[in-house]
Each structure stands twice: as C-alpha cells, then as structure tokens.
Specification:
Length: 129
C-alpha cells in the first residue's frame, strides 16, 4: 500500500485554527500515515491534541473516525445524539458526516490517536455551515 500526498497536506495544516468567541484556539493534528485503501478511500492516521479548556468548532468528516484516547478527558457534543464523555483508555467512534465538536474538560492536554477512512480527494474536515 502506498502513502499518498495527503500526509503532506495534513502536515501543512498541522495546526488547525478554530474559533471560539473572539479568541483563536488551535487544535494540533500530527500526521502519522496515510494509505490508499480501501479502493476509492484513504485511511488517515493522526495524533489529535487539545489543550485544557479548548474546543474544536462544529465539524464532520467525509468518512468514519475511530479513535483511542491516550491522555486526558473531553466531551464530544453531537447534533443528533447525547454528549459523549471521552477519557483516557477508552475508544470512540464518529459516523460518516456526523456533525460534532470536542471540548477538553480536563486539566491536562487531551490526546488521542485517530484513524479516518474517508473518501479520496475530499478534505479531512468538513466545517459546519
């Protein structure tokens, strides 16, 4: 399986600026690898990190996300289902194009390893309208 250029694109966008009120917050995404598989899709692996008190903007992904929390705790908020508490040592999943955001509710950095299986040639993150 061949690595694609998406790794470079994810690396170039390693810090995704996100808005919260008038303060700009940053979520760090460190690319690990991207493979062209299954056909028509890419599997992208990253380390995602949020500082205490930090939130992502509402967004979705053009495929599924499966992750494992390495450190910290957070809350995932969804448009279509109850909030989900995320804690170290637990897995999490987000469905295709499932609108959500994540807020670090702990006192230490939230860190997870995330794997996305997304449609090829689509952006990894779809911003909420």
């Amino acid at each position: 399986m061949k690595h694609s250029t998406r790794s470079l694109a994810v690396a170039a966008a390693g810090v995704v600026l996100l808005g919260a009120g008038t303060n700009a917050l940053a979520q760090q995404r460190t690319p690990l690898q991207t493979i062209d598989y299954p056909p028509g899709y890419e599997t992208v692996s990253v380390i995602a990190e949020l500082e205490p008190g930090q939130c992502t903007t509402r967004h979705a992904h053009p495929g599924i996300e499966s992750a494992y929390v390495l450190e910290g705790e957070a809350v995932a908020k969804f448009d279509s289902k109850p909030d989900q508490r995320l804690v170290a040592g637990r897995p999490l999943q987000f469905g295709q194009e499932e609108m959500h955001n994540v807020c670090n509710t702990g006192t230490v950095r939230f860190k997870a390893i995330a794997h996305y299986i997304v449609e090829k040639n689509k952006p990894l993150v779809l911003r909420a309208p």
